């Protein structure tokens, strides 16, 4: 739903409201919204987990690549295609190799691992918890492995971990007694541990911190006035890097828990998606990540049916979600359990 606006810096309020009014009007048969790389890769992550009943790096990258070669015109990041060509050329021998060589060995810090992480987070939550939902080690290990096949830069895979932890918390916490500040604080705690030992003077990524962004999220949530869109764009970010988009998606989810002056709609799910798109920039991806968090929190019954009517393959995706739930029923999960080997 966000893709028609991707890359726009300023989206008129009336223009966006008309867009949503059209989607919500059952008499208007606008063409469906084709899904972008976010959904393409999320779908393939889920299918790989379903078929293998566990994470299999080689299978997952093959599925990403096959989906990409089937239709490369889904707005993929400009560097990720090279990974798929290299993987295919080398017969997928080393699923982590091509990603680790990108950007002169620095790896991608794009939001591509975070935007597709929802099935991995849901699978780990259900499958690997060993009955202990307070232990985040299994989810962190699984997400790291599933991210590094394309995003080996620490900002890229940490962004995916943050998005996955947000999904996990959204699932865990009671929706009728939900405190947005506690949610942000918990994520700050996890990311603070992760950033221990980072060198603030590192010439490449020194000072680039998810904790700093999450502190800003908290500041906006505590403010009595809704922050200006320009403030969010400039300080939190609305770009294709994980650092400049994952905290923003989390903020969209949290801000939408209360009425928003800029998006006067009652339905929280609609408010969240609409607000995420209104920020401009990487609209498809930020709305997609915010949607994954609010979906985990509130369940699919809150998604307006008219949204689904216009989203390409929404019925297939519902079926994939049900299959993922079945496939993730706990068995034994030694690799990713903190109590495993
Ligand atoms: N790419 C886009 N949108 C651009 C416009 C698309 C247009 N609408 C169209 O139809 O063509 N969107 C998609 O990209 C984001 C996900 O990106 P992903 O998967 O992380 O890709 P990639 O290529 O790895 O990273 C994205 C860009 O970030 C910069 N970058 C990353 N790491 C870098 C590094 N270490 N050094 C320098 N630059 C780095 C590069 O410019 C990458 O191309 C989503 O928004 C998705 O929708
Ligand atoms: Mg995007």
From TrEMBL:
<keyword id="KW-0539">Nucleus</keyword>
<keyword id="KW-0460">Magnesium</keyword>
<comment type="similarity">
    <text>Belongs to the ADP-ribosylglycohydrolase family.</text>
</comment>
<feature type="binding site">
    <location>
        <position position="282"/>
    </location>
    <ligand>
        <name>Mg(2+)</name>
    </ligand>
</feature>
<dbReference type="GO" id="GO:0004649">
    <property type="term" value="F:poly(ADP-ribose) glycohydrolase activity"/>
</dbReference>
<dbReference type="GO" id="GO:0005759">
    <property type="term" value="C:mitochondrial matrix"/>
</dbReference>
<keyword id="KW-0158">Chromosome</keyword>
<keyword id="KW-0234">DNA repair</keyword>
<feature type="binding site">
    <location>
        <position position="38"/>
    </location>
    <ligand>
        <name>Mg(2+)</name>
    </ligand>
</feature>
<keyword id="KW-0963">Cytoplasm</keyword>
<keyword id="KW-0378">Hydrolase</keyword>
<feature type="binding site">
    <location>
        <position position="285"/>
    </location>
    <ligand>
        <name>Mg(2+)</name>
    </ligand>
</feature>
<protein>
    <recommendedName>
        <fullName>ADP-ribosylhydrolase ARH3</fullName>
        <ecNumber>3.2.1.143</ecNumber>
    </recommendedName>
</protein>
<feature type="binding site">
    <location>
        <position position="36"/>
    </location>
    <ligand>
        <name>Mg(2+)</name>
    </ligand>
</feature>
<keyword id="KW-0479">Metal-binding</keyword>
<feature type="binding site">
    <location>
        <position position="284"/>
    </location>
    <ligand>
        <name>Mg(2+)</name>
    </ligand>
</feature>
<comment type="subunit">
    <text>Monomer.</text>
</comment>
<dbReference type="InterPro" id="IPR005502">
    <property type="entry name" value="Ribosyl_crysJ1"/>
</dbReference>
<dbReference type="GO" id="GO:0005634">
    <property type="term" value="C:nucleus"/>
</dbReference>
<keyword id="KW-0227">DNA damage</keyword>
<dbReference type="InterPro" id="IPR050792">
    <property type="entry name" value="ADP-ribosylglycohydrolase"/>
</dbReference>
<dbReference type="Pfam" id="PF03747">
    <property type="entry name" value="ADP_ribosyl_GH"/>
</dbReference>
<keyword id="KW-0496">Mitochondrion</keyword>
<dbReference type="GO" id="GO:0006281">
    <property type="term" value="P:DNA repair"/>
</dbReference>
<feature type="binding site">
    <location>
        <position position="37"/>
    </location>
    <ligand>
        <name>Mg(2+)</name>
    </ligand>
</feature>
<dbReference type="GO" id="GO:0005694">
    <property type="term" value="C:chromosome"/>
</dbReference>
<dbReference type="GO" id="GO:0140290">
    <property type="term" value="P:peptidyl-serine ADP-deribosylation"/>
</dbReference>
<dbReference type="GO" id="GO:0046872">
    <property type="term" value="F:metal ion binding"/>
</dbReference>
